[in-house]
Amino acid sequence: MGAARHGIVSDSVSQIGFGVGAIFFGAWTDEDTPGTLLGAVAGGTTFTLTRGIWTANIAGQPGKLQGADRIIEVGAMLEAALQAISGTSLEAAIANCTLTAATPAGYDTIEGSGAGTVGSAELHDNVTVVTDMLGLTNGFILQLDDALPISELSIALADKDQFDAAGLKWEARFDPAALTTEPWRIFIPTT
Q1: Whose CA, among 7, 8, 116, 128, lies 20 to 30 Å from 27?
Q2: CA distances in angstroms from 67 to 21, 49, 74, listed in the order given
Q3: The pLDDT of residue 171 is above 90
Q4: Domain harbouring 75, CATH code
């Protein structure tokens, strides 16, 4: 049976992703220097890329014409569920908040810094998820640039079970000095 019937070719196994992976934030160079570890991500981590397309309507045309489409908006978002929670990971996932040592001793506190403008200090250079591919050395990587945390934090507590911090979201922002460079990347391993 040929590939036209089942879609399996000789390198299909190496194209299967698996594992929950890890998420990093800050300056990312490569897998050896990935930035600051935010934590292990659970299943359900999602990378979403959207494109708004405008189509010119020309009087008398029988339908949509080739070459009449324009991309007018690009959006990239990463949503993750962390398997382990720390003050650092929550601070990185919530805009306009501060992590401080608390009283009593042995605790840290995360508190909102108030409403208002979200400044560039809230943007992370990169938010990067790295996971494995069967049969390959390099990881499959999803990355946002200038990522703003837009999380609606939800921590689900379960009786005698681990809890996950779900709904941690970051949305990429365009650099005003480089508007033709989209603020996202997907690294697909070849080795």
Answers
A1: 116
A2: 40, 22, 19
A3: yes
A4: 2.30.110.20
